[in-house]
UniProtKB/TrEMBL annotation:
Organism: Chelativorans petroleitrophicus
Protein name: CoA transferase
SUPFAM superfamilies: CoA-transferase family III (CaiB/BaiF)
Protein origin, superkingdom: Bacteria
Pfam families: CoA_transf_3
GO molecular function annotation: CoA-transferase activity
Keywords assigned by UniProt, alphabetized: Transferase
Length: 400
């Protein structure tokens, strides 16, 4: 089947998570992603993993997570000849993506203006932690740091406990989505105007934007939402919204009529709290009372009773549990691809469904420089030129 972005080529200088996730999303939709990497080491994520565990004994799961559907060219960016190579490729490229610290690409000679001279239609997208200027511009733009700086960590967890970061790279992934949003908008504009443009995305703006509901309340009332001292699920919510223990685990209960919940639990004495102000002011006390009741149930029995009463609820599952979830299996969300070194790699498949141009996993995450010579041939470099670049150590051909 055709792919929505099959005629789009992306020159990808990005590394770690934000940029690579953005280009993976574009690659899933059919864009050709040419990942520019350092000879030898490549993307820093190739050297990072959790608990010193490596897929197939050699490959980083962190790298494999964000780099499928890409080709890799290994080239020394500091070599003068590298500019000749990359700018020749850029003549036929639609998008350039990079997420180095502000100023790095310009100092190396790969800023927007340099690419624009080669290809006026080019779309150049930069990702940073805190924008291009200002008092934080030299700070590292790492995910957990941004969660702390934007109030997300301070709004998560219990009142008498420490701030709690989210258990995933939330800021980077939101930044990646903003990159894709900007790039697709720019591609659409270029179809009408013929003009390329520069896009700048930063994690500070992205993470604040995605807390807009909480920020609007705080900014307009001049006070912070106070964290609960129980498992109420949000600092602005009243009881029963939260997580509750059962005999064999936990369940979540979202926005639901309090009276109906108490009825299901068979605890009419708790109706004394059934008042909007009381449900907020005494939410921790109410949570404790409700938890005493939910602990009498098994997870399956409580969910069955709550769902029958049209109460919003669900299981609390670990990542390992999720793999066997019946809805996850039904939707085919867990899939795999074959990697030349790691073997079969289990992954979460593309999240967007399209009737005419469905996304797919067409390539595994690449080896460093695996496609260097193939890419150069495709962009018009002769065998003699390729051999010369290889012999002088400017490029590297990786072996699968």
């Amino acid at each position: 089947m055709p792919k929505a972005l099959e005629d789009v080529t992306v020159l990808d200088f990005s590394h770690l998570l934000q940029g690579p996730f953005a280009t993976q999303l574009l690659g899933d939709m059919g864009a050709r992603i040419i990942k520019v990497e350092r000879p030898g080491q490549g993307d820093l994520f190739r050297t990072m993993t959790f608990k010193n565990r490596w897929v197939g004994g050699t490959e980083s799961p962190n790298f494999l997570a964000w780099n499928r559907n890409k080709q890799s060219i290994a080239i020394d960016l500091k070599a003068p000849e590298a500019k000749e190579v990359l700018f020749k490729i850029a003549e036929k490229v639609d998008v350039v993506i990079q997420n180095f610290r502000p100023g790095v690409m310009e100092r190396l000679g790969y800023g927007y203006e340099a690419f624009k001279k080669v290809n006026p239609r080019i779309i150049y997208c930069s990702g940073s932690g805190y924008g291009e200027s200002g008092p934080y511009v030299t700070r590292p733009g790492q995910d957990m740091l941004l969660q702390g700086l934007t109030g997300l960590a301070a709004a998560t967890g219990r009142r008498d406990g420490p701030p709690v970061p989210v258990g995933a790279g939330f800021a980077d992934q939101i930044g990646a989505m903003n990159m894709v949003y900007g790039i697709l908008s720019a591609l659409y504009w270029r179809e009408r105007s013929g003009k390329g443009q520069e896009i700048k995305v930063d994690l500070l703006s992205a993470l604040l934007q995605h807390q807009n509901q909480e920020m609007v309340w705080v900014m307009n009332f001049g006070e912070n939402l106070e964290r609960p001292n129980s498992s109420i699920g949000h600092p602005g919510m009243d009881a029963p919204f939260g997580l509750y223990p059962v005999k064999d685990g936990w369940v979540s209960i979202a926005m639901s009529p309090y009276r109906k919940l108490v009825d299901v639990l068979g605890a009419p004495d708790l109706l004394v709290y059934d008042d909007p102000e009381t449900l907020y002011v005494k939410r921790d006390e109410i949570w404790e009372k409700l938890a005493e009741e939910t602990r009498k149930w098994t997870k399956a029995d409580l969910l069955e009773a709550l769902l029958a009463a049209d109460i919003w609820c669900g299981e609390i599952k670990t990542h390992l549990d999720v793999m066997d979830d019946p809805q996850v299996r039904h939707m085919g969300l867990v899939t795999s691809y074959e990697h030349p070194r790691a073997g079969t790699v289990k992954v979460i498949g593309p999240a967007v469904k399209m009737s005419e141009t469905p996304p797919e996993i067409a390539r595994p995450a690449p080896i460093v420089g695996q496609h260097t010579e193939e890419i150069l041939r495709d962009f018009g470099f002769s065998e003699e030129m390729i051999a010369s670049l290889r012999e002088r150590g400017i490029i590297e051909q990786g072996e699968a």
